[in-house]
Each structure stands twice: as C-alpha cells, then as structure tokens.
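ARCHIVE CARD
SHELF: 3
SLOT: left
DATA:
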Amino acid sequence: MNTSTAARLQVIFVVEAPPPGVLFAVQSGRDELLPPFASTAESLSFALSLELGPPLADGAFNFRGPLAQGTPADRFVYLNSGTYAGQQQTPWERRAKIKLGGIPRDLVASAAGQADLAVEARIRGTARDGGPVCASVNPPDITWHLVSRPAP
C-alpha cells in the first residue's frame, strides 16, 4: 500500500439487474448524489474514490471522504434509489448500505494507492420483493473483486 498519509482507493459499484424504471445514485455527504457513469437495462456502474487514512486502533482500514458514511469503525456507502436518488413520481424510496468493512482486506491492500487498480462490487439490484435493493447488502447479494482500470 502507498505509505503516504492518505492513499486513495478506487471502488466501482456494478448494480446488476436493477428494477426497470428506477433511478439509482450514490450518496455523497448528507444530500449530494453521484449518478452512474454507465447505464444499460442490465446494469448501472458507479466510480468512487475513497481516502484511506491512518489505520484504526484495531488495525482496520480507515475509509474516509464524503462517500464514506457512518462511524470510523463501521463505514458504509449509501446506494440510494427512487426518491432518495432524485427520481420524481415513483413509489420507491430506498437506501442500501454497502459496508466497506466487507471488502476483503487483501483487495484493499492491493488496490490502495494504485491508479490502475480498483475494487469492484457486484451488487444484486433487485430485492426479493421486486423493488430496488435496500438495507445492508450482504453476500451472496454482493461480491468483491480486484479489477484493472485505465489510469487517469
């Protein structure tokens, strides 16, 4: 891992099989929304950049920045849908929690500070009730992988 005081971690969320007609956005801070950088009927993709601060007392990664919600020991990213994603005239108002502590440590260590590597989450976009994914997203509804990406 980069030994600078704050390495960057590139993260890609791929929302697979989202419900038709439902908007998704990643929440930044309290009320800003990050739209997908790519969108098809089959998937939506979001590119995130997180800061890694000094390790926490227990040695865990210290995810920081406006996309990292929650307490330092329990960081997550909100994946908003429906009205929470800025969509008007929809019955959906949901947020899914993507727990950053669920990223395998070896993937974070490999990708941290590397402009050409990212950690990718593949997320099932449709909940069991047919609506957009919501609540805490756990395996098997999310999988994590290391991927190569073009350097900026």
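SLOT: right
DATA:
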Amino acid sequence: MTTWTEFVTAAPTISEVFARRHAAAGSLAMLGTLRADGFPRVSPVEPRVFEGELWLSGMPGTRKFDDLRRDPRFTLHTATVDSRVTEGDAKIWGTVHDVRDPELHQRFAEALYEEIGLDLRGREFGFFPAADILGGSSVRVGGGHMDVTVWRAGGTEEVVRKH
C-alpha cells in the first residue's frame, strides 16, 4: 500500500504535477472505474488529500462508488483543458480500501467545512475510499520536447523524452 505521503516521496515529479493540476482545476479530477458489465466508466470527482492519504470522496450513492465497492481498481486523471498540455497533466492508478473510522470521518468533515463550506459534520459516513497508489505518470511539454515520467510502486521515476 502506498499512501499519498509515500507517493510524494517516491514520485516527486508526478505528485507535483498532479497536485498543481488538481488545484488549478478546482480540485476536479476524472475517475476511471469498471462498471458491473466490465465496461469502463469515467466520472468527475473531487479527491482530497487529508492526513497523508488520498481520499476518493464524493456524493454518496453514485455508481462510481458502487463500481469501487465491487472492484477496487481505479485510475485518476487531472482534468486537462489544454490540448497542448502546456501546464502538464498527470494520472495515478491503484486500488481503494474502505476506511471505517468515525473519528477520522469527523476530522475530515471538519476540514472539508473549513476548506469549502460543505457541512458534513456530525453525519455518519458510508463508503469512504482511501487510495492505495500503485503507479502514476505525468506529462510535461516544453523546449521542443515532451517528457513522460512514469512510476510504479517499489520503483523510481523514469523519464521518457519524446521529440
């Protein structure tokens, strides 16, 4: 299991691009899951980093969370709006696990309220998926080339330069 904190240490380039693009997109990312029929589903989500973990939080009762309960594999991509990718983009992939910890849920709810004003304080959380990051990649364009940085759990970042 690789937490967000461990990912930042192991994959500093990818995590920096992901965090920067995630913030620039207003915390929006695109979540890839597998539907019950095996087809892919892509859904908007606003993941949050909290207490060293990446949480795939969102509106309860949505199909994307049904998908993750059934098959915990996911891909998370920064919301790219520039076809030239001048600001870069990043994606991570892995699995999720459901965290049942009412005290953690309430700390998360308090932080969410302070950050964006959404008040979930005092509510019981259902499915609360934390990401176990297994890999990631990022793209940076500039100087007449594109650098693709790739990382897999247990390894180091590798860069492929394309001209």
